[in-house]
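Hi L.,

As promised, psi-f:
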Amino acid sequence: AMPSASKGPIFAILLMLVPAALPFSLTSATSRAVPLKQRAVSPIALDEAREKLVKGGLPVKFAERVSFQTAGAKTAGQEDQILILWREFKKCYKSEAVALEMLSKNTAVILPSLNSPRKIKGTFALLNKRLGKAQATDVVTKNPGVLICSPESLKKQSDAEIVKAADFVATLDANKPVINAVAGAVWFSIIGAFAYRIGTVGASPPGT
């Protein structure tokens, strides 16, 4: 049966919104259906800045992400600064593999506009001095973003506050799929309410 005239606006809005979500489901379904060896792998074309980061030891996916994050505030020689930050950041972890895993949580730690080698080195030293090596390592593992704080600002926080903040970040990270699902549900409920409002207003005579 055809939708009634009063529901027309709702269906029109939903039809405009649904196609935007289709590429995600289609991409996912296609990737599952086509064997890995049959998929065409397109070569990654790197610009000069990204290429410099990759040659400096930063994996392509991070070079792409960092380049995107600094697109609106690029400065001369920033690639060198990013690599210096990356090398200093790596010193806070037992291996480069662990450092890369932590970097995937928060690439802001190697953005020159937000961080400096002095902050990373000073904050990590302060954490080790106050918490001991084991707990300091636990804190920077749960919350790599703490390394963006300056030693001066961190001195104002108690040991308990620093540890609680790291635990909170770790909890958010562990529940990211749930948080994303809830955020998506809220977003679609807002869209549904918006569509319903337009539909009811459009169906009501003026002045009612």
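The chain has one domain: 48-199.

Thanks again for sending the construct details.

K.
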